[in-house]
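Dear colleagues,

I hope this message finds you well. In preparation for our joint manuscript, I am sending the Queuosine Biosynthesis QueE Radical SAM (Paulinella micropora) sequence together with its predicted structure, so that both groups work from identical material. I would be grateful if you could confirm receipt.
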Amino acid sequence: MNKLILPIVETFHSLQGEGAHTGRSAFFIRLAGCSVACSWCDTKYSWPISTKSWRSLDNIVYEAIVAQQEGAAFIVITGGEPLHHSLKDLCHRLAYSKLPIHLETSGVDPLTGKFDWITLSPKRHKPPKLEILRACNEVKVIIHETTDLLFANSITRLTNDFVSPPLLYLQPGWDNIGGYKLAVDFVRRNPNWHLSLQTHKWLGVR
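The corresponding structure tokens are as follows:
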């Protein structure tokens, strides 16, 4: 496999809509391919690889530099599941942009690449690797039903003994009224957790 190309679904400059960096200007790199296959996923178009465009790392870096000149504060590598691919070479080249590099992952694969911020969105049907849970800066659990809250509690127990525990977020599934109520009630009663909303969808931005 050519290490100088990656399957890219899309790249775009917008605002981070979720988690600790909500509202900040960011350049997004969405990679193709995902075997986690969450039923509620809002980017299912990113799952297949064969129909996607393979692009050079130099081309991606050029776009990141342009986005920086236009105001992007950091880079977000997302998917799909980006760690299905080795990100070492991509991160090495993106470092030339001087922008912080963020990763959004479910944590099912080994960590590759060097990041300034890691957002782990673990899934209970495919739990994350402990190495990524220990390395991440924030955990974002998607809430649809009560079982998801039990999973969130299991994450809390795992991170209790970490020297530098991650920030903890619950995010209701989009347009899931039950998920909203569960998440709000849980965060109200558990001060270590924060509420994350998909603000970009509320605002109608990409």
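For the figure legend, we might mention the following. The mean pLDDT is 94. Residues 169 and 194 are 5 Å apart (CA to CA).

With kind regards,
E.M.
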